[in-house]
Amino acid sequence: MRKGARIVRQGQRRVLRIDDTFASTYEPGRVTTGSVWDAIACGVLAVPLKRRRRVLLLGLGGGSAARIVRALAPKAVIVGVELSADVVRLAQEHLDLDALGLEVRIGDAREVVRSERAHYDVVLEDVFVGSGRNAYKPDGLPLPLLEQAKTLLRPGGVIVSNALDEAAEVRKAMAGLFSSVVEVGLVDFDNRIYVGSDAGLTAGSLRRAVAEDAVLGETLSQLHFRSR
């Protein structure tokens, strides 16, 4: 198991911490988190519902983003990639991961993307290494992984990348790959989420999609959007 991977219970809420990093949160009966996973998942709304057929989630953790994605794309095939089998086991035992109906793959996200042959409508990248406030992207991120991930997209698909200190680097990489990039921020969080698309995405259109969505609408007041 990764050093320090554990479940912390806070009343009904269950938190997965990996190497002292806040890695997932789950409260039975609740889909959204009020946290960064809501912002990551909102990129799914950039794809029309009928075209949300396959989603690739790199950095599954305990499944916080995957739970929202399942609510946004109830019929989709969702493939979640997680480096640690023990993290997946904790999520299965304590965070109801199995209820999401995912295809879970244990492995390095970079290797999975390089070898993948299936195509997707959405790729969500939430991969970090390190611990606590020192979490960072591993070698190969944002490039060439995001460039390789784009080759897996169906026409009109989107890539979403979650960034911390690497925000400027991720923003530049996404701008080089897509004609439209929207930055999503969350009140009280340092994360910057970048949603890339070649289908004419704007900050206004993504904001409207969130506002109109029954799942993520409640999070709208905590999000801010900016076209890049």
Index terms:
single chain, globular, 7 helices, three-stranded antiparallel sheet, Rossmann fold, alpha/beta, eight-stranded mixed sheet, 29% strand, 228 residues, 26% helix, 11 strands
Notes on the protein architecture:
The longest helix is centred in the C-terminal third of the chain and has 11 residues, at 167-177. With 228 residues, the protein is of the alpha/beta class. The protein contains 7 helices and 11 strands. The chain has a single domain (31-227), classed as Rossmann fold, CATH 3.40.50. It starts with 5 loop residues before the first strand and ends with a strand.
List the helices and strands and how they pair.
Blueprint: E1 6-10, E2 13-18, E3 21-26, H1 36-41, E4 54-58, H2 64-72, E5 77-82, H3 85-94, E6 103-106, H4 109-115, E7 120-125, H5 145-150, E8 153-163, H6 167-177, E9 180-186, E10 192-197, H7 203-212, E11 223-227
Parallel strand pairs: 4-5, 4-7, 5-6, 7-8
Antiparallel strand pairs: 1-2, 2-3, 8-10, 9-10, 9-11
**Number of discrete helical segments:** 7
Overall pLDDT metric:
96
Strand order within the widest beta sheet? 6-5-4-7-8-10-9-11
Q: Major sheet: size, sense and barrel closure?
A: 8 strands, mixed
